[in-house]
Amino acid sequence: MSSRTPRRQFLKNTSLAALATSFLGNLPLQGRSNLAQPAAVDCAPTTLDLYGQGPFYTPNAPLLTESLLATTGEPGTRLVLSGRIVSITDCLAVIPNAELDVWHANDAGAYDNNGFNLRGKVLTNSQGYYVFETILPGKYLNGSRYRPSHIHFKVTPPGFPALITQLYFEGDTDIPADAAASVTSGTYNASFRIIPLTEGADGKLEGTWDIYILGDGVSSVPDLHLDKGIIYSLGPNPFRDRVAIFYGVFQRALISLTVHDMSGREVAVLEKQELLPEKYTAVWEPPAALPAGHYFVALKVNDLQVHYLRVLRQ
Ligand SMILES: [Fe+2]
C-alpha cells in the first residue's frame, strides 16, 4: 500500500538539482551560486541570531518520527523544510548525522513550555540532508512589536560545538522592525537566514535552507546520481507496521520507488510512473507475513538507480 504527496513548484526558486550536483565534487565552486541561499561568500558560516537561544528552549526534545515536527492535527499552515548541513572548511563536503534541535511557536504564537509540542530533533542523512514537516510558526509580542515568524535551530555536528540561531521567512512584514531579523551585516547578519517559501499543490509551504557550520564533512559517493533524485529520509527506522519515505525528483522522468530484501528481491513497488520534479512522500505498510529484518528502499530515475536507504523492520 502506498500514497504520495506531490508538492508543486518545488523547483520554483531553488534548484535542488543544482544543489545536489554541487556537492558531488565535480563542479567548480561557482556552482554554489545555484544554491538555495544567496551565498555571498563561499562557505561563509551560518550566522548567530542577535537574540541567541531565546527564553523558550527546552533540552532533551525527542527525535522526530516520520519527520513530523507538527502532528497532523496541529492547527496552522503546513510547512516542509529541507536542506543540507555543509562543512565550512570544504564547501563541497556535507555533514552526516548532524543533529538539528528545532523549536518554534504554535499558530497562535505560543511555545509549549511544559511538554515537547513543536519541539524535536532530526538528524542529517548520509548525504547531509535533513527534512521535516511542521507548521508556519505564529507570531508573539516582544515588547510592543510582534516578532516575525521564526524557527529556532540548535545544530550540532558530531564532535563539534553547536550553532544556535533562528530562521525567518521572506516577505514577513515584521522583519524590518525586528532587532534580530533586520540585521544585515556582522556577527548577527540575518540576511542569509531569511528564506523564500513556495506553496505546493497540496497547500503545504516549502522552503530550503542550507546551514554552513564547522564539522567533519564527507564528499558524496560519486557513483550515486543525486543530481537526478534523492531519498531525503525515511522513518521511523526501525519500524513495525508503517514507514514513511521522503524523496525528491529533480527531472521529469519515469520514477520508481521499490523495496527489496537483502538478497535484492523486489518485495514492494511504492511508485512507478512519470513524475515531475518535486518532493514526494511514500508510505510502505508491508504485510504482516513479511519477515522482520533489513530491507532497502531504492529510487530509480529512468531505470537508473540513483539512491537507496536501508530500513529495519522489527
Ligand atoms: Fe522565538
Summary tags:
314 residues; mainly beta; Protocatechuate 3,4-Dioxygenase, subunit A; Immunoglobulin-like; 2 domains; 5-stranded mixed sheet; 2% helix; disordered N terminus; binds fe (ii) ion
Description of the structure:
The protein is mainly beta and 314 residues long. It has 2 domains: 36-213, Aromatic compound dioxygenase (Protocatechuate 3,4-Dioxygenase, subunit A); 229-313, Macroglobulin (MG2) domain (Immunoglobulin-like). 2% of the residues lie in helices and 36% in strands. It has one helix spanning 16-22, and strands at residues 78-87, 99-103, 119-123, 129-135, 141-142, 145-146, 150-156, 163-169, 194-195, 198-199, 205-208, 211-213, 229-235, 243-249, 253-261, 266-275, 279-284, 293-301, 304-313. Strand 13 (229-235) and strand 14 (243-249) form a beta hairpin. The relative contact order is 0.20. Mean pLDDT is 84; it is low at 1-41. The structure holds fe (ii) ion. Fe (ii) ion binds next to strand 7.
